[in-house]
Amino acid sequence: MTLLDSNESKKRMCQIYNEISKELFGFGTTLLRATVENNIVTFVAKHRRSPRSAALEVEAPGLKLEVDFRMSMLYKKRLREKLVEDMGLDIEALLRDYDSATQWAITNIILKES
Question: At residue 52, does pLDDT exceed 90?
Answer without folding.
Answer: no
